[in-house]
Design goal:
Chain B: GO terms for molecular function: electron transfer activity; metal ion binding; oxidoreductase activity, acting on diphenols and related substances as donors, oxygen as acceptor. Chain B: This is Cytochrome bd-I oxidase subunit II. Chain B: It is found in: Cell membrane. Chain B: Keywords: Cell membrane, Electron transport, Heme, Iron, Membrane, Metal-binding, Transmembrane, Transmembrane helix, Transport. The complex is a heterodimer of chains A (460) and B (337). Chain A has 460 residues and is mainly α. Helix content of chain A is 75%, strand content 6%. Chain A folds into two domains: 377 residues, no CATH class; 75 residues, no CATH class. The longest helix of chain A has 40 residues. Chain B has one domain. Chain B is built from twelve helices and two strands; from the N terminus they run H-H-H-H-H-H-H-H-H-H-H-E-E-H. A two-stranded antiparallel ribbon of chain B has the order 1-2. Classes of the chains: A mainly alpha (460), B mainly alpha (337). At the A-B interface, helix 2, helix 3, helix 15 and helix 16 of A face helix 2, helix 3, helix 4, helix 5 and helix 12 of B.
Chain lengths: 460, 337
């Protein structure tokens, strides 16, 4: 394989892996902050236990998210130096601001939170976890500002052989950013919600109906419900926006070869990507137009027309992204999203109605649905980035031109193997620790800590 | 002063902050398995930097981000050129970051010991590599007229840069041992003091060898002249004074002095570089400078405004977090695990 292919694999693997942990961090940091706020306001020990229990799981997840993030920042210069030269004027700024505004806040106040339980006032301690949560989510806004520019370039001019920033305000008010960030944010709430639900379900079944996990279960149910519902609604807004800004992306998502008016939506398409036609398809007439414009008419452009338009604009070349990957990842994301919503609704109703007298099967479903958001998140990111191809910056700069010209295939191959191996080891370790800490007896936590303390004092 | 120069200075400041802060926590990580014999002692050592190491590391991430934003060609040439060295550094930092959080999550001596050695390696490798990287920046590496690095991994491993690596390693470890003698109590305090005293002489010697070599290997001599000016001299005097200050047990002052050595040495190197950011050994005219490597004036202006607003805020709360945890860490109190 050549350096370009390897660099693309490396970007895909490291980014998808990084994003296993990011949504948990974004969602769980706010969840823990809410729990601690409840403790602060009510003084109820159950909330303190919740804060400590979920806080530990948050930290185990956070650590791995942070260290894999370092690779993300350095990777642009290492593997994509030509991209960095062309785009640095615009792309570097949000990254630098992310570090300055968000990473410092996150890391400093996390330190205060972990080590400050008995050293700072309760108010400052509570403020610390909120600042961690705000910092994490701010960091998401800045990195998505950078990503949004790649989807929809704004506020720039091509001068001196590179894209130069002309309007910083346009970059941070990019329409794409403000449909993308809420989608990511509520996706993160859903991810954390299902994680809380799953572990609470496990605890309720294995360790009896403890108040802490009844409360956590209800919390997780509401969190998952709000997250799933809004991620779908906002996803819809985002799709409508996509048709306007990146029509080729939507055409690929629907495997829509020809322009149609009214456009039908594919339920299932088995297509011939090479000859750009359907082999077998089930379609709902007019549904795609409805999705796009909220009415059953209106033209949605097809792949062939868009390809012709692109050739006129950018010269000869293939401007069609991998259709099969785009089509299926889009469907997995949407399908899993609706499944999440269904489970969240049923679980919330039952949690508030039945006093946790669920059927054992339902607990199992709830437990395993912890992996659903991650499947949707992963499919969503693969779709977003793959369906933008062949561009790194839509309509402006191609992936093939972005790769480092001084880094050999051997070097990229080496780093790809090295990251993959260390990431594989890390996930095994991390899952092991999550399991251990997720199955702890919540009443023992305080006792364990006291015992450590006593054994220390008795030695002294 | 133009914005390009201001950003050159700002990035120098970020590197100074990074080497000063992460310098001692690398040192602490390197000393961890040697100073701490039993688990409680090691936990106390880790807790001395527990609240800070993550924030310290962000100085590096910010420096990287600032290079990307202000001098994209510097970022692109450096990061793609020093590829394998950076991969090794990243692997070390990944393992180190996880180790701090995971080492105490199991009550198992084998598990903890393994992570402690990962913290050691994860601190040792970057402490060494940063000296190598910085030395190559100033010594010059092969760069062609398109700003592309044309050397390979072994180009970076020359005697001068290797001595630079050993110098940074020893200096950070000394800095860390003095930091520990300010943060620990009892046996651990004695241990840290002993190590600091032992490390001072070799660190000083290697540093001076490095400086002397610098006159032959780089163009510092022609740039700075026989009399290099106050800053390099003060860097040298500061490290010399550390030996005496340690002897009379003025660790606070000794820490100030290693901090000055680190800060002033970094300033000296950046002064030697200026207005270049990477020296081309192929042809001096192909060096990257603060002008040919920079972003547009507009981006620099935006970034300057952002930096003016937020750098003081960051400095304030980071300083405050050090103040909150200013007390010594003792194995006799309750330790946060």
């Amino acid at each position: 394989m050549d350096a370009l292919t390897l660099a693309r694999w490396q970007f895909a693997i490291t980014t998808v892996y990084h994003f296993f942990f990011v949504p948990i961090t974004l969602g769980l940091s706010i969840a823990v902050a809410i729990m601690q706020t409840a403790y602060y306001r009510t003084g109820n020990e159950a909330y303190k236990k919740m804060t400590k229990f979920w806080g530990k799981l948050f930290l185990i997840n956070f650590a791995i998210g942070v260290v894999t993030g370092i690779v993300q920042e350095f990777q642009f210069g290492m593997n994509w130096s030509q991209y960095s030269r062309f785009m640095g004027d615009i792309f570097g700024a949000p990254l630098a601001i992310e570090a300055l505004l968000a990473f410092f806040m996150e890391s400093t106040f996390l330190g205060i939170w972990i080590f400050g339980w008995e050293r700072v006032s309760k108010k400052i301690h509570l403020a610390s976890i909120w600042l961690v949560a705000i910092g994490s989510n701010l960091s998401a806004i800045w990195i998505l500002a950078a990503n949004s520019f790649m989807q929809q370039p704004v506020g720039y001019a091509v001068r001196n052989g590179r894209a130069e920033m002309t309007d910083f305000f346009a970059i941070i008010t990019n329409g794409h950013l403000w449909v993308q960030f809420p989608h990511v944010f509520f996706g993160a709430l859903a991810t954390a919600g299902f994680l809380i639900l799953a572990i609470s379900a496990y605890q309720l079944v294995k360790k009896g109906k403890h108040e802490v996990f009844k409360k956590s279960f209800k919390f997780g149910a509401v969190y998952a419900l709000v997250g799933s519902l809004l991620v779908i609604l906002l996803g819809h807004t985002q799709a409508q926006y996509m048709i306007k800004v990146q029509p080729m992306k939507m055409a690929a998502a629907e495997a829509l070869w020809e322009s149609e008016n009214p456009a039908s939506m594919s339920l299932f398409t088995f297509g011939d990507e090479k000859n750009r036609k359907d082999v077998f398809a089930i379609k709902i007439p007019g549904a795609l137009s409805f999705l796009a414009y909220n009415k059953f008419e209106g033209e949605v452009k097809g792949i062939k027309n868009l390809q012709a338009e692109a050739e006129q604009k950018f010269g000869p070349g293939d401007y069609v992204p991998p259709v099969a990957v785009s089509y299926w990842t889009f469907r997995i994301m949407v399908g899993v999203g609706f499944l999440m919503l269904l489970i969240a609704i049923l679980t919330t109703i039952q949690a508030y109605k039945t006093k946790f007298e669920f059927k054992p099967l339902w607990y199992k479903i709830v437990f395993w649905s912890m992996f659903l958001p991650t499947i949707a998140n992963t499919a969503g990111w693969i779709f977003t980035e793959i369906a933008r191809q062949p561009w790194t910056v839509f309509g402006l700069f191609k992936t093939a031109d972005s790769v480092s010209n001084t880094v050999s295939a051997g070097e990229v191959g080496f780093s790809l193997i090295a990251y993959t191996v260390i990431y594989a080891i890390l996930i095994v370790v991390m899952v092991g620790l999550m399991k251990k800490y997720a199955s702890r007896d919540v009443d023992e936590i305080e006792k364990e800590e006291k015992e450590v303390n006593n054994s220390v004092l008795s030695k002294a | 002063m133009d914005l390009n120069t201001i950003w050159f200075i700002l990035i120098a400041v970020l590197f100074i902050g990074f080497f000063f802060l992460e310098g001692f926590d690398y040192g602490v990580g390197i000393l961890l398995p040697f100073l701490g014999k039993e688990d409680l002692e090691r936990r106390a050592i880790i807790n001395s930097i527990g609240t800070h190491w993550d924030g310290n590391e962000v100085w590096m991430l910010t420096a990287g981000g600032a290079m990307f934003a202000a001098f994209p060609n510097w970022y692109a040439t450096l990061f793609s050129g020093f590829y394998l060295a950076l991969v090794v550094m990243l692997l070390a930092l990944i393992a180190r970051g996880v180790a701090f959080e995971y080492r105490s999550k199991k009550d198992d001596p084998v598990w903890r010991n393994r992570w402690d050695w990962i913290i050691f390696a994860g601190s040792f490798i970057p402490a060494l590599l940063w000296g190598i990287a910085i030395s190559n920046l100033i010594r010059g590496v092969p760069i062609d007229d398109k700003m592309n690095f044309t050397g390979n991994f072994f180009t970076l491993l020359n005697p001068y840069s290797l001595i630079g690596g050993v110098a940074s390693l020893l200096l950070f470890t000394l800095h860390g041992s003095i930091f520990l003698s300010l943060k620990l109590t009892d046996n651990l305090l004695e241990g840290a003091r002993k190590v600091a005293k032992k490390l001072w002489l070799p660190a000083t010697i290697v540093l001076f060898v490095y400086v002397i070599l610098g006159y032959f290997e780089t163009d510092m001599f022609s740039k700075l002249g026989v009399n290099p000016g106050a800053i390099p001299i003060l860097a040298g005097l500061a490290i010399l004074s550390v030996g005496y200050l340690l002897k009379i047990q003025k660790e606070g002052w000794a820490f100030v002095m290693t901090a000055i050595t680190i800060a002033f040495s970094t300033i000296t190197i950046f002064m030697g570089l200026f207005p270049r950011v990477m020296v081309s050994s192929t042809n001096p005219d192909w060096s990257l400078t603060i002008y040919n490597a920079s972003s547009s004036p507009y981006t620099l202006k935006v970034m300057t405004i952002v930096a003016i607003i937020f750098v003081p805020i960051v400095l304030a709360y980071q300083a405050w977090s050090y103040w909150i945890f200013r007390k010594r860490v003792s194995t006799k109190q309750k330790l946060e695990y």
